[in-house]
Amino acid sequence: MTTMPEFSPVFMDQLDDLFRWRRDVRHFRREPVPEPVLDELLRIACLAPSVGLSEPWRFVRVDDPQRRQAVRQDFMRCNAEALADRTGPDAQHYARLKLAGLDDAPHHIAVLSHPEPAQGRGLGRGTMPQTTTWSTVMAIHTFWLAATAKGIGVGWVSIIDPDQIMRVLDVEPTLELVAYLCVGYPAEPASTPELERRGWERRAPERREWIQR
Ligand SMILES: Cc1cc2nc3c(=O)[nH]c(=O)nc-3n(C[C@H](O)[C@H](O)[C@H](O)COP(=O)(O)O)c2cc1C
């Protein structure tokens, strides 16, 4: 018989620390993460649940300097457009935020999702086809937590044009871009979200309450 491991109270406390200290990181040290550690993160990410066991995620390492530069330029263009949509103090506040760590992060990882994977044989997707994307997000979050546990930071960059990034990546065009991640050792630890520290937004206590029906 297979026995499930028991998770000790000490482990549970540490797990709570892990959840609380997982951060979206935008300031990185330059030194690369050892390849075996990155491989380990990918292995753990693939333990995530997926609709029909379809494992629709595809993790793409973006190492080519020209592709990275093209992603940076796309971010700068999209970010300038986002800034142009704002006015007054809101625009000034937005302009002061650091919304990507694309220059410093030693690793860029694009996470793509197969919208109609053969694996999983369609189970669970009939009425909710978006479940493939959600499965890929599960893998990203698993990757993010595992990285945090190893002292590695992850920053999710979504101020990009997915069609343009897909052209830059030059991968199978039926895949969908879900995330563009900056990965590396954080410049400094932080116990609260950067957007909170910069006065942009705060965690809302009311979100921690159940809605009753
Ligand atoms: C789907 C998704 C997209 C995000 N895109 C961006 C982004 O483009 N730029 C950015 O600075 N942060 C981005 N973030 C990070 C959030 O701002 C961050 O998760 C939030 O402020 C909470 O901070 P924490 O992750 O450190 O707890 C994204 C997060 C998610 C989940």
Structure description:
With 213 residues, the protein is of the alpha+beta class. It has one domain: NADH Oxidase (3-Layer(aba) Sandwich). Helices cover 39% and strands 12% of the residues. The chain has seven helices and four strands, in the order H-H-E-H-H-E-H-E-H-E-H. A four-stranded antiparallel sheet has the order 1-2-4-3, sandwiched between helices. Helix 3 packs antiparallel against helix 6. The longest helix is centred in the middle third of the chain and has 20 residues. It starts with 8 loop residues before the first helix and ends in a 16-residue tail after the last helix. The mean pLDDT is 97. The site of flavin mononucleotide has 11 residues, from strand 3.
Helices and strands, with pairings:
Layout: H1 9-21, H2 35-45, E1 57-61, H3 65-84, H4 88-96, E2 107-113, H5 131-149, E3 153-157, H6 162-169, E4 176-184, H7 194-197
Antiparallel strand pairs: 1-2, 2-4, 3-4
Helix pairs in contact: 2-5, 3-6
The structure holds flavin mononucleotide.
